[in-house]
UniProtKB/TrEMBL annotation:
<keyword id="KW-0418">Kinase</keyword>
<feature type="binding site">
    <location>
        <begin position="112"/>
        <end position="113"/>
    </location>
    <ligand>
        <name>ATP</name>
    </ligand>
</feature>
<feature type="binding site">
    <location>
        <position position="199"/>
    </location>
    <ligand>
        <name>Mg(2+) 3</name>
    </ligand>
</feature>
<keyword id="KW-0784">Thiamine biosynthesis</keyword>
<feature type="domain" description="PurM-like C-terminal">
    <location>
        <begin position="143"/>
        <end position="252"/>
    </location>
</feature>
<feature type="binding site">
    <location>
        <position position="202"/>
    </location>
    <ligand>
        <name>Mg(2+) 5</name>
    </ligand>
</feature>
<feature type="binding site">
    <location>
        <position position="293"/>
    </location>
    <ligand>
        <name>substrate</name>
    </ligand>
</feature>
<keyword id="KW-0067">ATP-binding</keyword>
<dbReference type="GO" id="GO:0009030">
    <property type="term" value="F:thiamine-phosphate kinase activity"/>
</dbReference>
<feature type="binding site">
    <location>
        <position position="113"/>
    </location>
    <ligand>
        <name>Mg(2+) 1</name>
    </ligand>
</feature>
<feature type="binding site">
    <location>
        <position position="70"/>
    </location>
    <ligand>
        <name>Mg(2+) 2</name>
    </ligand>
</feature>
<protein>
    <recommendedName>
        <fullName>Thiamine-monophosphate kinase</fullName>
        <ecNumber>2.7.4.16</ecNumber>
    </recommendedName>
</protein>
<feature type="binding site">
    <location>
        <position position="70"/>
    </location>
    <ligand>
        <name>Mg(2+) 3</name>
    </ligand>
</feature>
<dbReference type="InterPro" id="IPR036676">
    <property type="entry name" value="PurM-like_C_sf"/>
</dbReference>
<feature type="binding site">
    <location>
        <position position="246"/>
    </location>
    <ligand>
        <name>substrate</name>
    </ligand>
</feature>
<feature type="binding site">
    <location>
        <position position="139"/>
    </location>
    <ligand>
        <name>ATP</name>
    </ligand>
</feature>
<dbReference type="Pfam" id="PF00586">
    <property type="entry name" value="AIRS"/>
</dbReference>
């Protein structure tokens, strides 16, 4: 079996048009007449993205939210979604959660496909958006001297996952894992200003390394500047929170003179490319630990 990066490399040879952006971005950007459509697709798999026994309404919420998060990171306004659904237990609960998330973010369901499920069910969703700013911001414009910024905190999903796994009925800590909120308004406000932007799905360090690689720079993160979700600080899991993922915050770079128009924390500085795409307080990350979450 291939790893996720190996398979994407095979796809990269096929996705050669400009709209695919070299498969180096959160979404495709397709010019259609005077508009630019922003298109993304993410899947969720039982046992990989949700635990067997989790409320299907939460799975539906997250499936839509993670895709809208990719639109948010490109400053796009959602136009609609298409659902690929595997039948299983409690399909009615899934439909209820889908209704909630579509209403919460005012996104229409446009269609989809339904198949018989089995163990290890997988659902997919395509989200279609309209660019509110062109050029659609990508990951490649970070320049030495830029500041690195992050919305919100990291580590909340990691703690929420533990709460779900241990059956803890604490809605606040579960919410970060079960019901992430795509930062659509924030992404739209940032799109005209940023030099690079993406959403943090696979872990702050791994996603920062993607901006670094796309931009041909180093991202140096100040460890103590990274805002941690309540409960992470002092738990001994601060470094894990930088690598766990599923937090769906926006990570972006701005020229040093530009202040973000939305609440965010400055977490580091862009430097020239060096041996490591990402450093922490000038030092390489722990070589024995992955930077974030990769499939395969
Ligand atoms: N099976 C696939 N076929 C074509 N493109 C893919 C496939 N899997 C991933 N990609 C592309 O590879 C890039 C990286 O994917 P991914 O890391 O999943 O992005 P994101 O975290 O924004 O969802 C994106 O451009 C995505 O569209
Ligand atoms: C049961 C379970 N175990 C572990 C995780 C953690 N996890 C699984 S995939 C993932 C990264 C994000 O998923 P991915 O499919 O890579 O999304 P993308 O980057 O394509 O948006 C994380 C943090 C989880 N969500 N659920
Ligand atoms: Mg993806």
């Amino acid at each position: 079996m291939s790893t996720e990066p190996q398979f994407i490399e095979l796809m990269r040879a096929l996705a050669t048009g400009p709209a695919a952006r070299g498969l180096n971005d959160d979404a495709a950007a397709l010019n259609v007449g005077a508009e630019t459509l922003v298109l993304t697709h993410d899947m969720m798999v039982e046992g990989v993205h949700w635990l067997p026994g989790q409320d299907p309404a939460d799975v539906a919420w997250k499936l839509v939210a993670v895709n809208l998060s990719d639109l948010a990171a490109k400053g796009a306004e959602p136009l609609g979604v298409l659902l690929g659904y595997s039948l299983g237990d409690n399909d009615v609960r899934f439909a209820a959660g889908l209704g909630e998330v579509l209403a919460a973010f005012e996104v229409p369901l446009l269609g989809g496909d339904t198949v018989g499920g089995g163990p290890g069910r997988a659902h997919g969703l395509t989200a279609i958006g309209r660019a509110t700013h062109v050029p659609v911001p990508d990951r490649s414009g970070a320049r030495p001297g830029d500041s690195i910024w992050l919305t919100g905190t990291v580590g909340g999903a990691m703690l929420g996952f533990d709460a779900v796994r241990s059956g803890l009925d604490d809605p606040t800590s579960r919410a970060a894992f079960c019901r992430p909120r795509p930062l659509l308004a924030e992404g739209r406000a940032l799109a005209p200003l940023v030099t690079a932007i993406m959403d943090v799905s696979d872990g702050l360090l791994l996603d920062a390394s993607r901006i670094a690689q796309a931009s041909g720079v180093n991202l140096d993160i100040e460890r103590d500047a990274v805002p941690l979700a309540p409960g992470v600080a002092g738990s001994g899991r601060a470094y894990e929170a930088l690598r766990w993922g599923d937090d769906y915050q926006l990570l972006f770079t701005l020229p040093a003179s530009v202040a973000p128009p939305i609440p965010a924390t400055r977490i580091g500085t862009v430097g020239s490319a060096g041996q490591f795409p990402v450093t922490l307080d000038g030092a390489p990350p722990d070589p024995d630990l992955p930077l974030g979450y990769l499939h395969g």
